[in-house]
Amino acid sequence: MINTDNIFEIIIFLGMFGFLGFLVVKALMSRMAVRIGFRNLTRQFRRNLMLGVCIAIGMVVLVVTTSFTNGMSDILFNKMIVYMSGHLRVDNKEYTSRRIDVIRDVPKIKQKIMETVEGIDRVEEEVGAFTRSFGNGKSGLLMLVGLPEGSSFYEDTDLEEGSVSDIFKPDTFPGMVLYKGAAKDLNVKLNDTVKLQFETIYGQKQVAQLKVVGIIPSENMFMDMAGFTDSKVLREYLNMRPQEAIGLNVVTKFPDSPARVIASANALYTALVPEAAGIKGDLVKGSTNISTDIFAFEVSTNKDAPALLSEKLQFISGRLDDFTSTKNGILLTEPLAKKLKASSGTRLSLSYQPKFDTDMVSSEVIVTGIVSPVEGFAEETAFANEEVFYKVFFWNLPKEPAVVSHDNALFSALLPEWDRLPRTPDSTSSMKKMLNLNKENWKGTRLDVSSMYETASAVIDIERGLNIVSFIAVLILFFVILIGVVNTMRMSIRERTREIGTNRAIGMQRHDVRTVFVFEVVFLAFFACVVGVLLGFAVMWLLSLATFDIPGNMFSMFLVKKHLYFLPTFKAVFFTFGVIMMISYFIAFRTARHAANLRAADALRHYE
Amino acid sequence: MNVIELEKVEKDYPLGATTVHAVRGVDLAIKEGDFISIVGPSGSGKTTLLNIIGCIDHATGGAVRIHGEDVTTYSDKKLTDLRLHTIGFIFQTFNLIPVLTTLENVEFPLLLMKKANLSKKEIRDRAVKLLEEVGLNDQMNQRPFELSGGQRQRVAIARALVTKPAIVLADEPTANLDSDTGEKILTLMKELNVIEKTTFIFSTHDPDILKYANGVVKIKDGLRVS
Fold first, then answer.
1. Domain of B83?
2. Do B169 and B89 form a contact (C-beta atoms < 8 A)?
3. List of chain B residues with pLDDT < 50
């Protein structure tokens, strides 16, 4: 798919290259005018030098600010948000017997992500816990993150002490690596142990003891709160199975493009349209075992469902009220009831093969009614009260799910495999959505798709604020350059009016007169920009030498290892260079028109 | 054959609420190879008349014909081309380009003649030959500020002649020179007039240099008096 951000960027850069190419061609075609323009720089040397210094300082400020904001974005998108929530995130709220935040079928959701999201760098399974940690006489909060062996994080991280591989070596206590700041807060060193208290995903208290096998130098304040261990180990502590994760964080290759990230989140949301929760399982009565499709009706959580069922189901025996009021109730179609020799009140065993386990899952159900076969379903189908599925389905997803068309008249009454929470544009509405969810009386699962522009919008707002400040500074600088160029040119034109008259009298066309003045400014801007870029890099190098020890200060999140972090890119420098050249050219062109339009006789008559 | 014909040429300038009649119905015919002097007191309209002949100023009335063609309806671009190819200018204050060397100043008009497709060598050779003719063999790489007034005017003459124009207009070419240098310059112009058959028209209010001219046009208060 063609991306509009890229097209815009390509157009801008082609425009810039085209403009610089145009300047070169123009210079080659008007060599004498260009030569005069170039040599004119040496006249009014002091004035041109001052303007050049002004443009160079502007360039320095632009290079430094764009590199700083690029650095900030890099820290935000690639060092902070990536580890906080990814650029896109899918998580799941489950409420069957208690509230659990877990995705039960990671492979299925992962596959949807891979099919839908463009430019994926990696998909990370979130396995982590906020812990109360106890070191040597000191305690603190620690975010313990589980990462699998071979995670790119370990490859990308240089340890100050210890070894990452020790995390995965069997030892008395499982290994963990800590950021230096966290180690300092807990007063622990390499080979010390840390006790951690936290809750499993089911809310049980858990205590673990981990050995510090590595210390990572802290890059910013967020990292000072984190420690890492083997995800397998942490899963066990959290009572999570291998196919489960607290969330799925998608890291993309285009984090600084809100349009692309949000579009991907929207596309993923659309792709995650749920099927009905269905099981291809067995109903067993004594020695009679019948394989059948089993679905569940939302009789208690969907207020529209009872009316729909009353309209569409034809009860041969039993009543809808019996079905809705019996938590382990089940309706059988007449052919299925005949095969099972079951009638209202018959107890059956529902069993099926789960997707992620070898042991069969089974649960007892009571027949609360016999219905005629329902259009769109197999003749032999069973419909359970949703409460039956809350006990078995979500905990042990079936290996073979039963499927029904979304167009089926009863589809809206069927329990879905999940519900999707609505997409939200920002963190405020996202938080409001979650608060409302906590207030609501709901059961089942709620899948949430979010982008970093919702989950981390507060941090992004800070970055945007700083970007706006630097943008305003840039505008002011452009304005100063603009005034400088216009002023210098007007003075030059005034001083050289008779010269313009002479050139026009000799036979110089208007456009050549304009070229002389324009190239004077273009050369000045070019040399000033080159000097500005070099000075900009020198300034960044000097600034990055300074150490800022401001723990607790909000701005420390923009520091890397207590130093300012600059990320100059060719794109940004070239763009700034191009913009200054363009501004200079167009202002010079406009001002030089005045000189070009002077009548030769009038210009020759001019006296200072 | 007349190179230049002026027929009832007028030039008015607005000056505040009033109008200054700088040239009032001047008729003039100049033949190829003439060495004509336009004389008259300051403010008589000599420079305005030269500017009109040189196509750097428009007449507000009458007709100006160069080589028989009425140039009063020409566009700015066409007039500029005409000046480049047909007319050379020598100014009282020399008006050389200060950032170019002597040689480059002389080459300059040839470089503007893009349609002539002159090679670099041709341009260089023509400029060098002319500078040698005006006696500036040793000053070719000097900048104008390094030259004396006479030398500068010689450069200006070389620049005016380098395009082989049919007409050279000189507005008081000796006014900023001492009398010896002035005489040398006029002698040089006269020689070139004879050798190159170029039509020279120069304005002056110095009666001593009229002896060089083979025709004198007297102007007073914008009117031709003889």
1. 2-224
2. yes
3. none
- Give tens-digit pLDDT for A219-245: 666 667 888 999 999 999 999 999 999
Contact between A177 and A164 under an 8 Å Cβ cutoff? The reply is yes
Contact A142, A131 (CB under 8 A): yes
User: Residue B149: beta bridge partners?
Assistant: none
Chain B residues close to A506, C-beta within 8 Å: 83-84, 89, 108-109, 112, 159
Domain range summary for chain A, segments of one domain joined by + = 4-81+460-604, 86-119+253-274+424-455, 129-243, 278-417
CB nearest to A509's CB, from B56, B77, B93: B77
Residue that has been written with the tokens 């082989």 in this structure = B164
Give the pLDDT band of residue A355 (cuts 50, 70, 90): very high
pLDDT at A166 over 90: no
CA closest to B88 among chain A residues: A506
**Helix H or strand E segment including B2:** strand B2-15
Contact predicate B188/B157, CB 8 Å:
yes
Does residue A2 have a pLDDT over 50?
Answer: no
Contact between B193 and B30 (Cβ < 8 Å): no
Q: What pTM, to 2 d.p., does this model score?
A: 0.66
Q: CA A84, A86, A89: angle at the middle one, nearest 5?
A: 105
Which amino acid, residue A128? G
Question: Is residue A150 a contact partner of residue A234, using CB atoms and an 8 Å limit?
Answer: no
Residue owning tokens 């020890």: A549
Nearest partner of A417 among A440, A442, A445, judged by Cα: A445
Interface-testing mutation among A28, A32, A597, with chain B (most B C-beta atoms within 10 A): A32
| Token pair recorded at residue B89 | 């200018």
Alpha-carbon span B95 to B144, nearest angstrom: 10
CATH of the domain at B45: 3.40.50.300
Using the Cβ of B112 and the Cβ atoms of chain A, whether some distance falls under 8 Å is answered with: yes
pLDDT (tens digit per residue) in B93-130: 888 999 899 999 999 999 998 888 889 999 999 999 98
Tell me what the mean pLDDT of segment A375-387 comes to.
95
Contact A507 B109 (CB under 8 A): yes
Scan for tokens 């029904």, then name that residue.
A404
Nearest to A125 by CA among A168, A78, A92, A164: A92
Quote ipTM for the complex: 0.92
The token pair that represents B114 in the structure block: 């893009």
Residue A22 neighbours by CB distance under 10 Å: 11
> Would you say how long chain A is, in residues?
608
> Rounded to whole angstroms, how far apart are CA atoms B93 and B171?
9
Our count of domains for chain B comes to 1
**Angstrom distance (rounded) from CA A299 to CA A288:** 28
Read off the pLDDT of residues A8-25 as tens digits, 9 standing for 90 and up: 778 888 888 888 888 888
